[in-house]
Every structure is written in C-alpha cells, then in structure tokens.
Amino acid sequence: MTEFYEAVTAYPDGTSTVSRYAKTACSYGYDGLVVRTRQSEYDPQAIDDTYGVDVVSGIEIDAETPDSIAGSVGNFREECTLLLVRGGTNGRNRYAVETDRIDVLTQPMANGGDFNHVLARAAKTHGVRVEFDFGPVLRQTGGNRVQALRDLRKLRELIEYYETPYVVSASASTHLWLRAPRELIAVGEQIGFSATQIKEGLAEWGRLAERNRRRANESFIEPGVKQGKYDSR
Amino acid sequence: MKHLPKHIRPRWRYLAVGIESTPDAEIDRGAFQRELWYAAGNLLGDPGSADADLTVYSFSFDEGRGEAIIRVRRGETDPARAAVACLSEVGGEPVGVVVRGVSGTVRACEESYLGRRTGDFEQRQVVFADAQRAAFSREDALEVSVPAGFVSATELDFE
Predict the structure, then answer these.
(1) Who among B79, B86, B96 is closest to A178 (CB)?
(2) pLDDT value, residue A233
(3) pLDDT of chain A along its 233 residues, tens only?
(4) Rounded distance between C-alpha atoms, residue A192 and residue B87, angstroms
(5) pTM of the predicted model, to two decimals?
(6) What would the pLDDT profile of B99-142 be if each residue is shown by its tens digit?
(7) Which of residues 23 through 42 in chain A touch B, CB cutoff 8 A?
(8) CA distances from A220 to A80, A204, A224, B25 (A)
(9) Residue B118 has what pLDDT?
(10) A53 contacts A25 by C-beta, under 8 angstroms
C-alpha cells in the first residue's frame, strides 16, 4: 500500500506544533509528515511512538535571489533530510530545478511565477520534484483561485508531458487546514487530476525521505554501492 | 403535494463530517450550511452543487469541536467530498473538516461515525515560548493562548 505523506509549516511559522499536526495526520490516515520549518522543535521518536507518524525534518528555503538560495543550500543541506526551495520568480525556479542538491521546488507558480518546458526538462534531469500546491484551491476564492487553478493546469500539462517528478501538498500552516488523502484526491479529480496522480504525489514525499535517509547512512557509498556484508539478493 | 412513489424517490447518501476549530469559535448550523453551499457553488458550479444537494441534516458544535451529517445524492459523494474539503473558514474562524464516513441512512451514519464527542475543555497554565500562558486542554491536545491568537500543541510539547 502506498504511504501518504504531507508537508506542513509548523510553529513558529505556523500556528500548530509538529506533534499537533502528527495527531491530526494520524487520525486522517497519513503515514508521515515533512516539516518545512527550520526552527520547529520536536522529538520525532516520541511522536512516532505516540501517534505512529513518521516525522521527516525538512527545511524550506525562502530567499530572494539565487545567490542567497545557494548560500542557504550550503548551510542547511547537511542539517535536514529534505531540502525545499520556495519558487515564485523565474530566477528562483530556474536555480532550484538546476541544482541536484535541492529535493523539492515548492510553489513555482505563486506570486506570478511561471514554469515552462525548459524548467520541466531541467527538473527531470536534476531529479528535483516540483510541488503542486493545493493551498489556494482549498482556501481562496474568486479571481485568486481562478488564477491558481489555471496555473495548476499549466503546470500539470507540462509535468505530464515531460514526466517530471512531482509532489502534492495542501501547504497547511495550521492543523485545521490539513485535509485527508481521500479529500485531496476528490478535490484533485474535480480540477482535472487523476486519483493516481494525487496518490503518487503524496507518496513521493515518503519515497524522497526514504532515499535521502539511505544516502545519509554511513554505509552508503554511491547509488548501488554500500559498505557491509555480502548480500546475495 | 403527494409524496413520490418509493421507486422514483431520489436515493441519498449521508456524509458524517467531523469539524474542528479554535476554542472560542462559535459556529451554528446556518453559518456552516451557508459556507458549505458557497464552497460547493465555487468548486462545482451551480449545476454541480444542485446535483450534490449538500443539505446539512444534523449539526452540533461546541467548544471548538463538532459533527454534522450532510445529505448528498447517491453517486455524487466524490464531488461532495471535494466541496467539503474546500471549507476553510466559517464565520471568519479557520475550520478543519474531515469526512469520517458515508452511509445510506441517517441512523447508520450516526451509529457508525458520530457521537465521539469527548469531554470539555480544562483551563490550565503552561509554560510556552518562555512565558506562563493560559491554555485550554482536552485529552492530549492543548490550545495555548498567545498574543496573536492560539497555538495548537499536544502534551508532547510540554514534556
């Protein structure tokens, strides 16, 4: 069975602590949570024991220019399991999709940002996941929401055509804005996604975390090579 | 008007919905119904929301937690679920909603998915973000009062 993960903004940037997100996520049927906030304090082991939710430490870099993003990537890459970069301008989107050390480009279409075939191809080449941000669809109304829907559609068409890897998130900043996987699937189907796409997008967070943890492991040397006993499989 | 013969009456499904909000939120059935219809109208359009129906049948909300039963036409449960997911605020207060399950009768819906209300809030003082603060606690969840509103936490944050 696919394991669903969701990425959230926790206290102090959001208004719920990581453990509260975990409590809600557990009752909604999620298997894990990616924390986007660097300053959040939590005990992943205690949360896993109490709520059975796997907490992945992530950092979402929100910097103005590619230069400052580059600085933050160097500073924070070692600190976290998943490194996310907030997109939204051409410079930031371009830098993020062309950097192997970045895992996810978030909100590429926010604030008038744009995406095109060059970025979609680059993201695939460099293994950077592009985020479908469902936040505006769930929480905005009127013109803003229409624009968000139009942007999601454009992004989806590019990503389908170029087979770019992607993730899906409701980008909650309080636990009240988390939505269960089935709800996200239902919303996705209304706005033109397929159920499989949403499921894959939610599961991709977990697969990324798993991959990065394996790589951070001391016995890892390079993909396919690891230190240890001979394994006949 | 004379009621319809049984075979021609519409078939319904009932969604059991769990509602959560801030401790001082006051949500009544009318406000919830209005926001739900707005959400459905905006997401599904007029024809879609007319098909889904989305009448709030029973509604209860107290101390930041509530439950509702929403009537939906059979075969329209997926669009209805999407409309429910798009409810993000009622009366200016953020709300969390989740569809706990779907049943064919109101009674089955109540018996299977509703009535899980647990205890009232307990007032407490906790140390959070380097200061003594008032908090509402229920089970292992706490709503800590800070100048900007509430921060939602659990007992794990105070160990």
Answers:
(1) B96
(2) 58
(3) 789 999 999 988 999 999 999 999 999 999 999 999 999 999 999 999 999 999 999 999 999 899 999 999 999 999 999 999 999 999 999 999 999 999 999 999 988 889 999 999 999 999 999 999 999 999 999 999 999 999 999 999 999 999 999 999 999 999 999 999 999 999 999 999 999 999 999 999 999 999 999 988 888 888 888 888 876 65
(4) 19
(5) 0.92
(6) 999 999 999 999 999 877 667 888 889 988 888 999 998 888 88
(7) 23-24, 27-28, 42
(8) 17, 21, 9, 51
(9) 67
(10) yes
Under DSSP, the state recorded for B130 is T
Distance CA B56, CA B51 (A): 15
Distance in angstroms (rounded) separating the CA atoms of residues B58 and B153: 30
Please, are residues A184 and A6 in contact by the beta-carbon 8 Å criterion?
no
What gap in Å lies between CA B131 and CA A48, rounded to an integer? 28
Is residue A132 within 8 Å of A167, Cβ to Cβ? yes
- Identify whether the C-beta of residue A87 lies closer than 8 Å to the C-beta of residue A110: yes
Q: Which of A47, A187, A191, A193 to mutate to test the interface with B (most CBs of B within 10 A)?
A: A187
Cβ distance of A15 and B149 shorter than 8 Å: yes
What proportion of chain A, given as a percentage, has pLDDT over 70? 98
Beta-strand relationship, A166-169 and A129-133: parallel
C-beta of residue B113 within 8 angstroms of C-beta of residue B16: yes
Chain A CB contacts of B13 below 8 Å: none
Per-residue pLDDT tens digits for A8-22: 999 889 999 999 999
- Three-class secondary structure of residue A64 per DSSP: coil
Candidates B83, B84, B72, B78; CA nearest to B44 is B83
* ipTM, 2 dp: 0.92
Picking from B22, B88, B157, the nearest residue to A19 by CB comes out as B157
Give strand pairing partners of A80. none
Rounded to the nearest 5 percent, the helix, strand and coil shares of chain A are 50, 15, 35
Using an 8 Å CB-CB cutoff, list chain A residues near B85: 138, 179-180, 183-184, 186-187
